[in-house]
Design a protein that fits this description.
The protein is an alpha/beta fold. It has a single domain, classed as TIM Barrel (Alpha-Beta Barrel), CATH 3.20.20.140. It has 11 helices and 15 strands. The protein has helices at residues 19-30, 49-62, 83-92, 120-129, 149-164, 178-186, 197-201, 225-235, 253-257, 271-281, 288-300, and strands at residues 3-7, 11-14, 35-38, 70-76, 95-100, 133-135, 170-172, 191-195, 242-244, 308-312, 316-317, 322-324, 327-329, 337-338, 341-342. Strands 2-3-4-5-6-7-8-9 form an 8-stranded parallel beta sheet. A hairpin with a 2-residue loop joins strand 12 (322-324) and strand 13. The protein binds N-carbamoyl-L-aspartate and zinc ion (ZN).
Length: 358
């Protein structure tokens, strides 16, 4: 198959950053996706409804002209998040979820939750409001091996939390292990997972191919081939509990290539094309649309997008870098080929003139 159309997809896990850097990356997503769940791990994090509203306005102002992209906002859960704040967030109509980072788990997560007992009342309210909890599912215990942090978190924290709040909608963000898939598959109604393109395409060897590859370092870290195969099986299975979330996480080139490089992989420039490669290789292109465009909206209780986009099997080379604020970023597959290209942008949006755009 060389051409196929699908309903306009949504990205259920996206980092946009802020300021000039945000203005440089948001178009990559807005050109293709209808909506995206915007992660709140700014510095300082988005902990109040007022912060989320202001951040949303900045994103809307930075959108390329003519785009109808809708940023879906999130609140960053801390030990001190109040039930009043969560109620207000829900009433705002623009905050669609609350993100749980265990303190210290990843980039800008220092204000995350240290004591799960302290967020019980907030979780109970979220269950009542049908406001999903998005979970970065990794323990931060330095004694736990980095490759085991997701599995240990599921056993110690997530499984008990899901049972203690039987009505709470929970999304295990960026699932990376067979244990995560087994957990989601066996969990009660209202438990789902997002899966990134990089965890579907690469295993942990990609961090060390011919030397250290900082642009393949992200959190949760890439896992072994056994886990990658299980993620591909889950994503392409047609199970509505799995849906698209890129975790596209831009960092300046220099901050990733230093002696202590940041975690995060930027994939927004080619996200749908990269997923198409995965589904094609698995012989499951017919399952891509539901994963990319239906199951996430259904889980969040939002309408599915009506417009369609066109994917063509037409290889193109990813540029070495894209603009990113005062610097640049190195995208996934930089100077390598991607097999698919999104051709028909949503009809009301003219393609941008940014020189680096494929
Ligand atoms: C994310 C970031 O850079 O904000 N990094 C990453 O490796 N995924 C944070 C996160 O989602 O863990
Ligand atoms: Zn993320």
């Amino acid at each position: 198959m060389t051409d196929f159309t699908l309903a306009r997809p949504d990205d259920w896990h996206l980092h946009l950053r802020d300021g000039a850097a945000m203005a440089d990356v948001v178009g990559h997503t807005a050109e293709v996706f209808g909506r995206a769940i915007i992660m709140p791990n700014l510095q300082p994090p988005i902990v109040r409804t007022a912060d989320a509203l202001a951040y949303r306005k900045r994103i809307l102002r930075a959108l390329p002209r003519g785009t109808s992209f809708e940023p879906l906002m999130t609140l960053y859960l801390t030990d001190d998040t109040s039930v009043e704040e969560v109620r207000m967030a829900h009433q705002s109509g623009v905050v669609r979820a609350v993100k749980l980072y265990p303190a210290g788990a990843t980039t800008n997560s220092d204000s995350g939750v240290t004591d799960f007992g302290r967020v019980e009342a907030v979780l109970a309210l979220m269950a009542e409001l049908a406001l999903p909890l998005l979970v970065h599912a990794e323990v931060t215990d330095p004694d736990v091996d980095i490759f085991d942090r997701e599995a240990v978190f599921i056993e110690r924290i997530l499984a008990p939390l899901v049972e203690a709040h039987p009505q709470l909608k929970v999304i295990l963000e960026h699932a990376t292990t067979a244990e995560a898939i087994a957990f989601v598959e066996g969990a009660r109604e209202g438990v789902a997972a997002t899966i990134t393109p990089h965890h579907l395409l690469m295993n942990r060897n990609a961090i060390f191919t011919g030397g250290v590859r900082p642009h393949h370092y992200c959190l949760p870290v890439l896992k072994s081939e056994r886990h990658r195969c299980e993620l591909v099986r889950a994503a392409t299975s047609g199970n509505r509990r799995y849906f698209l979330g890129t975790d596209s996480a831009p960092h300046e080139k220099e901050t990733k290539e230093g002696s202590c490089g940041c975690a995060g992989i930027f994939s927004a420039h080619a996200a749908v094309a990269l997923y198409a490669e995965v589904f094609e290789t698995a012989g499951a292109l017919d399952k891509l649309e539901a994963f990319a465009s239906f199951f996430g909206a259904d889980f969040y209780g939002l309408p599915r997008n009506k417009e369609r986009i066109l994917l063509r099997r037409e290889p193109w080379e990813v540029p070495a870098s894209y603009a990113f604020g005062s610097g640049s970023l190195v995208p996934l597959r930089a100077e390598e080929m991607v097999a698919w290209r999104v051709l028909a942008r949503p009809s009301h949006h003219k393609s941008t003139t940014r020189p680096n755009t494929p």
